């Protein structure tokens, strides 16, 4: 057992852990941070993405002991008012964008996708569509076909932009669809 | 007491409104109820010991070292669990003489695929269970494995071929035939083919539907709590109702003693339409120890042992006149069941049997399918289930016919399809298509795609000998959705009906609880169903709460698959709402001291004709709760239940157009443009419909270009991780241009046709047609799926050489 001390979603925590314990297991099993999920065992899917000292990491690919002294943010602590956002508090702009653009269906990849998006936009506030697609390459989604996820990233980029219009166009999510009431 | 002033949404505008989803908030903030999140006091954790061999006799299992490992409670083999573990049932024997191997959750003396469970480790932590699983020493005596589908179909004990289950003496499970001449729905296909051989065109092709893996994002997980009066099962499943029934039927535990809950479920796509060895084993272990038990699979276990999809060989013969009118289609199919006949596994190709004729007026048709057992993971429903395979075959053939004729593929389709004024149309497969407009959808898609401009660019690049060639793919699909009329399922020997149940509870506060038997796993039922109820009852969208996925809350249901939730479950809900209104009307008349015949209901209010007097439905709900004053002869309540059994399937259709660029020097395929116009009938929520189309498209595109479950010659799955099984990422894809037209379905009052599978069914042939179209000048007329750079490059080399 190894003693670790770290900050998770703003709270200081300290535990004795097995050296082999993964950060994602520590978050889920010891801290009850079940918003962060496990989708694979080869660091391929990105569902477990969290922020470690401000940068996105796949928490299945980090040992809990490696997070000693670090500041971790999970999906549950992303919004400004932290965990209170769960009930009816303020959402982070990327969370808001995913909701607005229908960028999630089953929602299992969503925590990782949102955390990765937040990191992507912190690094590149106005990405092109290609930069968005490359930036999310390590996060798999099986439901949305990524179409509305890309829209959500664009929406968040514009929403948080000091100079609206400089980023990619923010489109409402449904694509160019129109409802045509043609009769049979 | 009313709440209408708080949320003044005009109820009549709910249908067709792009409401943001109710279910999002908990999902985007991480306040989710995945099965793997559940931890109960004293939980025992399971790890599965799985066979590394495709086919072997188990000659001994030494569990001593594992049993003595720290924190291990027990190690149980199939023999230990034999009396209590039950069996996994096949609910759809497609013929009376179907050969069906017995499927025990934990193997007893023989394993039939790599990944089959041979022992269960029970421990105080998941880590202790996993550690100890490595210590279980199993002796195997390897047997010849039946792996290749066509080889397995031809194998017999006499010719020395490998038999997947030697005691059965054959790999052929069943043969299922539909012949239009015998059914009286059309002519004799052999006559049509003979006539075309004499004077006409005969196109003969063989297509492989590669094996796919549903690869839902949430690995399967199950928690069983046997403490208390009922045994509660939480499971990442699409089918809590069906699973509860079969668990009871095969273990002898009364159904009333089992509560099945599907909490938040992270995708399914058919992959969680299964009763699984893992659920059955967890149930048996929990009963044995009287303690809560939990098992969550790893991704590798999921890819290896959760059921796979597709895996067919299709031998096709299309007959046509010299002017391009199709006169007959013959389909000879081999379908790989894998090691066991899964829940509806044998029925998957039968679902396709009705769709090979697609949107066309073929006068003669024969479908002959054999289902074959092999020593690979079992196969069952995967998004589209039988219909993608059929649609792929016919849409590829129509392109081949056009190429043979030297004509535009859209033109040949127009010549053969059902026109909008011919509905309702009974097809050569015996289905009656109720509505559709293929001409308008195609015209709109052609326009949005810039079809003529892209054809012109293609011609220029061909002329210039551009090393990167442009290909254009067409797919004009239809599908049968809204599974299903119970009588039809009965005639096909399916073990259950196709109805759905709904209940509406009018709460005294004016809020509305809606109970549905459809069990969502990402589709957005909570939002779309709220819109339907808000529309019919005239209550605010926000006041409707949709409950589902728990057999104690929603006791009757047949769950979610086959694009049925809206067309069957949504219709049950709409009819239940109508029943609430009908039940509330005498209350309103009584309270307003009016004749019930003078009461009109509109936008949530019962009013007396010609007066300003009225009562809201919320006021009636409170009055019915109090029940102080109501007419003689009626019950004190206005809640309603409906079980809806559809009279027909629904038939969404659409025109999908895809442009790809193929680098003829490397074989690399790049998506350039994708346009689709889908007719899914009335759209309740366009945002959700578009999302379903996007996701469906990508799963179909992935079959065309990337995904395949690959086994080696010993039956080991080579694509056993997400690093090897190529689920596409955002970087592999483009944005799509999706649009809708609507010819309402006539089989439900909503006019809805279903959308869950449409994109997947349509997109695979559109992409492959585009790839083949790009390199047809090189003498290529087919590229096997997935169209990897190696296969495309090889096709170009082979074509150019011939």
UniProtKB/TrEMBL annotation, chain A:
Keywords associated with the record: 2Fe-2S, Iron, Iron-sulfur, Metal-binding, Oxidoreductase
Cleaved signal peptide residues: none
Residue segments, region Disordered: 162-184
Biased composition (Low complexity): 162-177
2Fe-2S ferredoxin-type domain ranges (all copies): 2-78
Top-rank taxon: Bacteria
Entry-linked Pfam families: Fer2, Fer2_2
Keyword Iron-sulfur: yes
PROSITE patterns: 2FE2S_FER_1 (PS00197), 2FE2S_FER_2 (PS51085)
Gene3D superfamilies: 3.10.20.30, [2Fe-2S]-binding domain (1.10.150.120)
Keyword Oxidoreductase: yes
Protein name, UniProt field: (2Fe-2S)-binding protein
UniProtKB/TrEMBL annotation, chain B:
Record SUPFAM superfamilies: CO dehydrogenase molybdoprotein N-domain-like, Molybdenum cofactor-binding domain
Composition bias, Low complexity: 1-12
Region (Disordered): 1-26
InterPro entries, A to Z: Ald_Oxase/Xan_DH_a/b (IPR000674), Ald_Oxase/Xan_DH_a/b_sf (IPR036856), Ald_Oxase/xanthine_DH-like (IPR016208), AldOxase/xan_DH_MoCoBD1 (IPR008274), AldOxase/xan_DH_MoCoBD2 (IPR046867), AldOxase/xan_DH_Mopterin-bd_sf (IPR037165)
Top-level division of the source organism's lineage: Bacteria
Domain Aldehyde oxidase/xanthine dehydrogenase a/b hammerhead: 29-144
Keyword vocabulary terms for this entry: Molybdenum, Oxidoreductase
Name used for this protein in its record: Xanthine dehydrogenase family protein
Taxonomic lineage of the native organism: Bacteria, Bacillati, Actinomycetota, Actinomycetes, Micrococcales
């Amino acid at each position: 057992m190894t003693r670790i001390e770290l900050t998770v979603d703003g709270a200081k925590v300290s535990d004795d852990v097995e050296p082999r314990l993964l950060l994602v297991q520590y978050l889920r099993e010891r801290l009850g941070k079940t918003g962060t999920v496990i989708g694979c065992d080869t660091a391929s899917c990105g569902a477990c993405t969290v922020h470690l000292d401000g940068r996105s990491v796949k928490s299945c690919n980090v040992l809990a002991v490696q997070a000693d002294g670090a500041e971790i943010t999970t999906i549950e602590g992303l919004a400004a008012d932290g965990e209170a956002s769960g009930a009816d508090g303020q959402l982070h702009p990327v969370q808001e964008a995913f909701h607005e653009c229908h960028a999630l269906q089953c929602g299992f990849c969503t925590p990782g996708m949102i955390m990765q998006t937040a990191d992507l936009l912190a690094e590149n506030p106005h990405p092109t569509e290609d930069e968005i697609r490359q930036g999310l390459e390590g996060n798999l989604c099986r439901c949305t076909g990524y179409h509305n996820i890309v829209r959500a990233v664009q929406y968040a980029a514009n929403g948080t932009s000091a100079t609206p219009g400089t980023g990619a166009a923010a489109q409402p999510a449904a694509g160019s669809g129109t409802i045509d009431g043609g009769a049979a | 007491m009313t709440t209408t002033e708080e949320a003044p949404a005009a109820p009549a505008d709910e249908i067709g409104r792009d409401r943001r989803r109710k279910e999002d908030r908990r999902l985007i903030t991480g306040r989710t109820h995945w099965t793997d999140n559940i931890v109960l006091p004293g939980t025992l954790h399971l790890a599965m010991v799985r066979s590394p061999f495709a086919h072997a006799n188990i000659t001994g299992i030494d569990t001593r070292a594992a049993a003595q490992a720290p924190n291990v409670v027990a190690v149980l083999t199939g023999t230990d669990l034999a009396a209590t573990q039950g069996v996994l049932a096949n609910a759809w024997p497609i013929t009376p003489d179907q050969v069906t191997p017995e499927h025990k959750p934990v193997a007893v003396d023989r394993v039939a695929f790599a990944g089959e469970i041979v022992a269960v480790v029970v421990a105080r932590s998941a880590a202790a269970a996993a550690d100890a699983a490595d210590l279980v020493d199993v002796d195997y005596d390897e047997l010849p494995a039946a792996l290749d589908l066509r080889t397995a179909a031809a194998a017999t004990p006499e010719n020395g071929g490998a038999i997947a289950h030697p005691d059965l003496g054959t790999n052929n499970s069943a043969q299922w035939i539909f012949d239009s001449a015998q059914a009286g729905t059309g002519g004799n296909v052999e006559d049509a083919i003979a006539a075309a051989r004499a004077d006409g065109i005969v196109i003969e092709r063989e297509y492989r539907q590669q094996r796919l893996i549903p690869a839902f994002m949430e690995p399967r997980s199950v928690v069983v709590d046997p403490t208390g009066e009922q045994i509660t099962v939480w499971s990442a499943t699409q089918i809590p109702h069906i699973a509860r029934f079969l668990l009871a039927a095969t273990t002898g535990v009364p159904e009333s003693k089992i509560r099945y809950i599907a909490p938040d479920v992270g995708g399914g796509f058919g992959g969680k339409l299964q009763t699984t060895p893992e659920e059955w084993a967890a149930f048996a272990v929990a009963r044995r120890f009287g303690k809560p038990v939990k098992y969550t699979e790893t991704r590798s276990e999921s890819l290896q042992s959760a059921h796979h999809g597709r895996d067919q060989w299709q031998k096709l013969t299309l007959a046509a006149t010299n002017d391009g009118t199709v006169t007959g289609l013959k389909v000879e199919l081999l379908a790989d069941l894998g090691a066991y006949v899964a829940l509806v596994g044998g029925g998957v190709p039968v679902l396709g049997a009705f769709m090979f004729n697609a949107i066309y007026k073929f006068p003669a048709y024969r479908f002959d399918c054999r289902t074959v057992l092999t020593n690979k993971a079992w196969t069952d429903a995967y998004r589209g289930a039988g219909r993608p395979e059929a649609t792929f075959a016919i849409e590829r053939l129509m392109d081949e016919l056009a190429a043979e004729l030297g004509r535009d593929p859209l033109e040949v389709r127009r010549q053969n399809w059902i026109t909008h004024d011919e509905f309702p149309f009974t097809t050569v497969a015996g289905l009656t298509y109720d509505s559709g407009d293929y001409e308008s959808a195609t015209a709109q898609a052609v326009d949005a795609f810039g079809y003529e401009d892209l054809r012109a660019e293609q011609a220029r690049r061909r002329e210039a000998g551009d090393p990167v060639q442009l290909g254009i793919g067409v797919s004009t699909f239809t599908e049968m959705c809204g599974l299903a009329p119970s009588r039809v399922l009965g005639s096909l020997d399916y073990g259950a009906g196709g109805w759905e149940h709904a209940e509406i509870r009018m709460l005294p506060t004016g809020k509305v609880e809606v109970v549905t038997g459809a069990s969502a796993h990402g589709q957005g039922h909570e939002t779309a169903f709220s819109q339907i109820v808000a529309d019919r009852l005239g209550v605010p969208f926000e006041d409707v709460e949709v409950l589902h996925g728990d057999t104690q809350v929603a006791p009757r249901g047949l769950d979610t698959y086959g694009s049925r939730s809206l067309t069957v479950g949504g219709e049950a809900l709409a009819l239940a709402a109508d029943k609430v209104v009908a039940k509330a009307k005498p209350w309103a008349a009584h309270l307003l001291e009016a004749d019930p015949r003078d009461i009109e209901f509109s936008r949530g209010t019962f009013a007396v004709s010609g007066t300003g007097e009225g009562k809201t439905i919320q006021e009636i709900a409170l009055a019915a709760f109090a029940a102080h004053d109501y007419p003689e002869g009626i019950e004190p309540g206005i809640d309603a239940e409906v079980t809806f059994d559809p009279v027909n399937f629904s038939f969404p259709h659409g025109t999908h157009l895809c442009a790809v660029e193929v680098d003829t020097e490397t074989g690399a395929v790049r998506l350039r443009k994708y346009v689709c116009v889908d007719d899914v009938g009335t759209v309740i929520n366009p945002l959700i419909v578009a999302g379903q189309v996007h996701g469906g498209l990508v799963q179909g595109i992935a079959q065309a270009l990337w995904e395949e479950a690959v086994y080696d010659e010993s039956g080991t799955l080579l694509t056993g991780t997400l690093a090897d099984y190529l689920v596409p990422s955002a970087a592999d894809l483009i944005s799509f241009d999706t649009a809708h037209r609507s010819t309402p379905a006539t089989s439900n009052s909503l006019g809805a046709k279903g959308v869950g599978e449409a994109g997947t069914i349509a997109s695979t042939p559109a992409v492959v047609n585009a790839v083949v179209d790009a390199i047809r000048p090189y003498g290529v007329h087919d590229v096997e799926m997935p169209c990897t750079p190696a296969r495309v490059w090889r096709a170009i080399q082979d074509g150019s050489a011939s």
